[in-house]
Structures are given as C-alpha cells and as structure tokens.
Amino acid sequence: MNQPHEWSTLSRLDLNLFRVFEVIYRERNLTRSAVILHLSQPAVSHALARLRAQIGDPLFVRDGRGVAPTPLAEQLAPSIQEALSNLRRSVSGGQAFDPQRDKRSFTLNMAEQLEPLVLPAVLTQLQRVAPQVQVRSSCVHWAELQLELAAGRVDLAIEIARPTDAELRQRQLLRDPLCVMAGPAFSGELTTQRYLDAEHVAVTSRRRGICVEDLALANLGLARRVRQHCQHYLSAALLVAQGELLLSMPRRYAELLNRGLGNRLLPMPLDLPPVTLNLYWSRHADAEAGNQWLRGQLLELARLQF
C-alpha cells in the first residue's frame, strides 16, 4: 500500500551521497573524508549539503577541528553502513581479486597491545605481494566486533581464542607460550614459589582487572599478588625495569618489547597454557575473494614468522 510513496521517496535520493555520509561518519573530518573519497573539500561539502536537504537534518555539526554526527545521523549510520556493505559484497562476491592490481583497503581489528607485534610484519608482507593494497588497523571491543564484521566495517579480526556462534568463522593464527619478564633487581632462579610470593604487574583493559594468566592460575587453584594494573605492556615493562615486579606475557611480544630495556626473560615456572590467537571473519565474507586472499596471507605469515 505504501509502495508508490516509498519509490517516490527513494527516487529523490542520490544514493552516491550515502558513500559520502559513510566516510564522514567514520572520519569525523571533512578534509580527511575528501582525501579518502578522492574529491575536493568543496565537493564533499556540496554533497553533504545536498544530503542534508534531502534528509531534512544537518546530519553533522562542527566539533572542534572536525564534525560530530547529530542524533538522527547516529540513528541512520548503522543501516547505511550495513546497506553499503551488502551492496559491496553483492558486487564483488563473484569477482576475482588481483593483489597486484586491486586498490583495496582492508580493516584489520586487533587489541592495541598486539599492533606492534602484528601490523609491521603484515604491512611488510603486503607491500611485497600487493603494493596497492592498504590495511587499516582498528580496535573494536569483542562485544561490538560481530556486528562490525557482519556489516563489513571490519574485514578480519585477531583476538584471543573464545567460543563463538555460527555467524563468525575462525582459524587458529598462533600460539605463544607465556614467559616472565623480570627487572635487573630480580636475581636467581624463578621457581613456582618465588613466582607466587613475588609482586606482579598485570596488563588488562578489562574494568575488573582479570587477565589471561590470572584465569589460568585460578584454574589451578592458585593466585598471585598483583601490585599494579596497567593498560599497556610497554608501561608494565618500564615498571618492571625499575624494581622487583614481575610481568607475565606472551614470549614473542616480550622479546620485541624488551629490546633496549635490559629486563630478564625467564621461563614460566608453572604449567600455564599458551596464549592462543585466532583469526575471525563473518560468514558473509567466507567466499569473498579479497577476504579469502588476506586470510591466506595472514595464516601463511603466522606460519613463517610468528
């Protein structure tokens, strides 16, 4: 019954303007949006003005050096992003991906702590095999990640292994044993008892302060003495270098972070499981050629380097 009105409304909209909306919403800056869209800033401003007139809302207002979405823009954004992602998947689903020619930008999600370990190696590899492909690093929390993957705003994610539902696909990327970082003031052998008696610095972004090694210790009926919580391993490693605190962390990352610090890297004296990182993607992207190619690159890189 409402179909003629719906078609009339749709016919008045320039659907190309929604791509402009998507980029401005993500970047919150008209200058950066113009660069990404390969348009001049006046052209982006003109496109936004046309969309404002068609929607009947300012959509974005000035906020410092950038712009901020209005309440209506916040309401529209998820649907617009999902619709554009579905359209991209429909168009590209049957197309081949040529890494030597395609100018594709992928979004790879990972925790901030992982970026120094993973991103430089990934970019070095891709520069060699796909010089025009770009990778954007993001950090979306797990609670929002499935929606971001399904909507196509994130292509792949690297996360600690955890149960998922059928909407997400996953493959093990790497397993890294835990080690213990100790400062110059800590001498001698690290035994189980010394580990439990020592004071520790723990790294977690969780509000409750629970991290992987504490959960593993709890499964053994053990607990350690955490003196300080940090959000980043670099802060924790610098604290370790100043005293007798111990830091438990994945071995590969510890080796990278310890360059120039001079802390000792000691074997973990308890039988704690290694940290397992998985690669996640949406089932909607399972057969998409570009996503398949990037998954293969990451899995091969992990096999050879990580």
TrEMBL record:
<dbReference type="InterPro" id="IPR037402">
    <property type="entry name" value="YidZ_PBP2"/>
</dbReference>
<dbReference type="Pfam" id="PF03466">
    <property type="entry name" value="LysR_substrate"/>
</dbReference>
<dbReference type="InterPro" id="IPR005119">
    <property type="entry name" value="LysR_subst-bd"/>
</dbReference>
<dbReference type="InterPro" id="IPR000847">
    <property type="entry name" value="LysR_HTH_N"/>
</dbReference>
<keyword id="KW-0804">Transcription</keyword>
<dbReference type="InterPro" id="IPR036388">
    <property type="entry name" value="WH-like_DNA-bd_sf"/>
</dbReference>
<comment type="similarity">
    <text>Belongs to the LysR transcriptional regulatory family.</text>
</comment>
<keyword id="KW-0805">Transcription regulation</keyword>
<feature type="domain" description="HTH lysR-type">
    <location>
        <begin position="13"/>
        <end position="70"/>
    </location>
</feature>
<dbReference type="InterPro" id="IPR036390">
    <property type="entry name" value="WH_DNA-bd_sf"/>
</dbReference>
<protein>
    <submittedName>
        <fullName>LysR family transcriptional regulator</fullName>
    </submittedName>
</protein>
<dbReference type="Pfam" id="PF00126">
    <property type="entry name" value="HTH_1"/>
</dbReference>
<keyword id="KW-0238">DNA-binding</keyword>
<dbReference type="InterPro" id="IPR050389">
    <property type="entry name" value="LysR-type_TF"/>
</dbReference>
